[in-house]
Amino acid sequence: MNNEKTYSIVLPAYNEEKSLDKCIKEIKKSNIFSEIICVDNNSTDNTKQIILSNKVTYLNEEIQGFGAAVKKGLDNCRTSHIFICEPDGSFNIDDIKIFLEKNKYYDNVFGSRYSNLNVIYLKFGNLLFAKLITFFFKGPVLTDVGCSFRIIKKTTYSKFMHNLKYTGPEFQVELTLNIIKFSKNIIEIPVNYYQRLGKSNYTGSFFNSSKVALAMLKVIIIYFFKNFS
Questions:
Q1: How far apart are CA 85 and CA 148, in angstroms?
Q2: How confident is the model at residue 207 (pLDDT cuts 50, 70, 90)?
Q3: Are 97 and 31 spatial neighbours (Cβ–Cβ below 8 Å)?
Q4: Which of 74, 96, 126, 151 sits in a 20 to 30 Å window from 193, CA-based?
């Protein structure tokens, strides 16, 4: 690992008691992170107790939504580089090593679940939006716009952090578009992806996934006209 770089990891958590304890312990075991930040997004289960018992940084975000929780974590990081990872059992913590290897050459590293996504409408919906972003915003070649597992350089984030306004899952697209705007030093890498523990609040059904897709499309359209108007 490059000694000049320091790493935080942000874990947005809403009712993640089934997977959170194992996730935090695996992250600690990696011995990579200067700070582990868990953002409790108004959980009603034992999420808060699990965070506190593991003696990592606890934050609560009262605004409900994936985007609000992630932004709360990003805004409070103090390191040069920030990981984002959902602690729901869907990602393999060992993949962090691949991110770090790529981070030697690229400031921002995005994960892609494309090869491991088994739900057809999620697989090709994410691919479609990724290709739209690649084409219209002259970004890197992307295959998965919805993957939250990534590294962001803090100085890149600081250039647009005050302009972010979305609080739901569409925040993922807004974050991606801003990183592309302020940094061309980006690469996407494949990551392992598993069935999450518990049901997703956003993509657990075709109907909910369709609502997320429309919200993401809205962000893409707004940013496109903002850039070219």
A1: 6
A2: confident
A3: no
A4: 74
For residues 181 and 78, is the Cβ–Cβ distance under 8 A?
no
Query: Does the residue 18 lie in any domain?
Result: yes
Distances (CA, A) of 119 to 85, 136, 209: 20, 26, 11
Domain assignment present for 2: no
pLDDT digits (tens, 9 = 90+) for 87-110: 999 999 999 999 999 999 999 999
**3-class secondary structure, 81:** strand
- Our count of domains for the chain comes to 1
Q: How far is CA 161 from the centre of its chain?
A: 15
Residue 128, token pair as written in the block: 């479609």
- The predicted model scores a pTM of 0.92
Q: Mean pLDDT for the chain?
A: 93
Residue 177 lies in a domain: yes
Tokens of 182: 């302020």
Number of residues written out for the chain: 229
* Cα dihedral 174→180→185→187 (10° resolution): 60
User: Tens digits of per-residue pLDDT, 118-164?
Assistant: 889 899 999 999 999 999 999 999 999 999 999 999 999 999 999 99
* Residues 102 and 183: beta-carbon distance below 8 Å: no
